[in-house]
Amino acid sequence: MMKSALFPLIWLVTTVIHAAEPTLYDPSKRGAAPVIYDRDFATTGGERVVPTRIFLPAGSGPAAVILVSHGLGGSREGSNFLGEHWSARGYVTVFLQHPGSDESVWRGKPVIEARREMKRAANAANYLLRIADVRTVLDGLEKASTQSGDRLAGRLDLKRVGMSGHSFGAKTTQALGGEQQVGLGGARSAADSRIKAALPMSPSPAAMGDPSDSFGAVKIPWMLMTGTDDGAPSGVVSTTPEDRRKVYPALPMGDHYELVLYGAEHSVFTERRLPAERNPRNPNHHRAILAISTAFWDAHLMGNAAALEWLRKEARSVLESADVFQVKKADADQTRAPK
Questions:
Q1: In whole angstroms, what is the distance from residue 234 CA to residue 203 CA?
Q2: First vs last Cα of the chain: how many Å apart?
Q3: In 187-223, which positions are buried (b, 16+ CB within 10 angstroms) versus exposed (e)?
Q4: Which PANTHER family match (predicted)?
Q5: Adjacent-strand bridge partners of 200
Q6: Measured distance CA(109)–CA(73) in Å, rounded
Q7: Which of 19, 124, 243, 293 is 20 to 30 A from 44 (CA-CA)?
Q8: Hey, is 134 helix, strand or coil?
Q9: Distance between CA atoms of residues 246 and 227, nearest Å
Q10: Which domain holds residue 68?
Q11: What 8-state DSSP symbol labels residue 75?
Q12: 7 inside domain
């Protein structure tokens, strides 16, 4: 009798204790699928139009924003696996398409001509246009967020903006995220204060001078992602996997990270392999990219302490033994979420 009477009490106490335990942080877990639609943004005079693909998360309130810049010859449709995951985690994800260095450069052309045109498009003029494209889209998002009847009205938290990009898009991200352009005239910055965290995939080293002169003054959190076989498209540019790893050592201490996936080639951050690539795709690479990138955004856009703890102590749980993950810590008890 006594035993049967105590059972409900034991069950109740156990339930309360388990209910009080914190939920384990899991950056791989997804919420509801986002709404996906395409939208163009134009400069004030309409001289240049920037196509975008927007992944709008479920819900009705404002959400942090992630901008994504494609690589040379890409489009707003590339790497959408990132947008699907990030938006299912609650982020408005906006993929930009950059006229002049997008898929129009090579599409419909013979292989030799396409390669030649790709090489021509990897120039300083397109680099500057890409930087301007990001500003155009940010300005357009600011306007849309306050315009009555716009589907983005009330949906954007523009105090929490992150930016990512692959290859040429990584170079674009680096510029807007605080890389100094060092030349004969000294150091210049194209940083945009609206961007609070940056995630370059297949980063590019400094064009000139000591890397610390280019990257030593970065003020926002950076997450660098590359692979041990992450070279560049043959015949287009000459960046090597070793070049891509010159960025991380040059960053200052504090909230910076580097992920190096073993055996990963240049296209690992996209959904399609490049014709010249030979390594078989490792399915764990995308799993790792999604989990670690999500934890980075959660920690440094949303100020999620559990995400920061996961990054610093548990990120290896989604990696394989030969992968590399490095952290340059800031204050161990602080995230650097936007204010």
A1: 17
A2: 59
A3: eebbbbebbbbbbbbbbbbbeeeebebbbeebebbbb
A4: PLATELET-ACTIVATING FACTOR ACETYLHYDROLASE (PTHR10272:SF0)
A5: 165
A6: 12
A7: 124
A8: helix
A9: 13
A10: 27-328
A11: -
A12: no
SS3 content of the chain, % helix, strand, coil (to 5): 35, 25, 40
Paired tokens of 121: 């498009």
Among residues 311, 296, 226, which one has the least CA distance to residue 262?
226
Give tens-digit pLDDT for 32-89: 999 999 999 999 888 999 999 999 999 999 999 999 999 999 999 989 999 999 999 9
d(CA 135, CA 321) in angstroms, rounded, equals 40
* Number of other residues whose CB lies within 10 A of the CB of residue 299: 28
Would residue 16 count as lying in a domain? no
Alpha helices per DSSP H over 182-282: 211-215, 241-244, 247-250
Pick left, alpha or beta for residue 177 (phi over 0 → left; psi -120 to 50 → alpha; otherwise beta).
Answer: alpha
- CA dihedral angle for residue 256, residue 260, residue 266, residue 267, rounded to 10 degrees: -90
Helix (H) or strand (E) segment spanning residue 70: none
Question: For tokens 């030593």, what's the residue?
Answer: 216
Distance CA 166, CA 67 (A): 12
CATH of the domain at 227: 3.40.50.1820
**Which one-letter DSSP state was computed for residue 78?**
T
Axis crossing angle, helix 124-145 with helix 168-176, rounded to the nearest 10: 60
Q: How many C-beta neighbours within 10 Å does residue 54 have?
A: 23
For 300-339, how does the pLDDT look when each residue is reduced to its tens digit (9 = 90+)? 999 999 999 999 999 999 999 999 999 997 654 444 456 5
- Tell me if 14 is assigned to some domain: no
**Contact at 8 Å (CB) between 98 and 127?**
no
Query: What's the whole-model pTM score?
Result: 0.89
Does residue 163 sit in helix, strand or coil?
Answer: strand
Give domain status of residue 6, yes or no. no
**Which of 62-76, 94-108, 262-276, 284-298 comes out lowest in average pLDDT?**
262-276
